[in-house]
Amino acid sequence: MNLAEIPLFSMLKGRMGYLSERQKVIAENVANADTAKFVPNDLKPYSFDAKMQAQQMAQAGSASTMAATQAGHMAPKNERKGLGSQFKTMRSPDSEVTLNGNAVVLEDEMIKMTEARMNYDAAISFYQKSMSLLRMAARRPGG
Length: 143
Hints:
Elements: H1 7-31, E1 41-43, H2 48-60, E2 89-91, H3 106-138
Antiparallel strand pairs: 1-2
């Protein structure tokens, strides 16, 4: 069985992908801390409910879904793989703006980075514990 078919692992993979993309966006904000008129970005919050609904709709196989009848067919936009296009960024201007119009507050960005890192570590820990439970369940008794 493929781990991606297990909803728990699928959601954890999505969460880790979201947190990786968020770290990239925050790093871009920090890199542009001296750029004139730069407004920091952030990702829209990750929602397990939205992911569950999307997965249920995908499993239901709605009538509006396009089918690839040959191996050379391109997948529809909503079914293409790749984490970069999966998450949407939003502008997150702060109350502090420098004289050159830059709105990046390094302290806030570092707090966001730390929060994203802690959430990523928690997701990895949960993933590892779930894998160890699967391994334990797959072992033969007394072995």
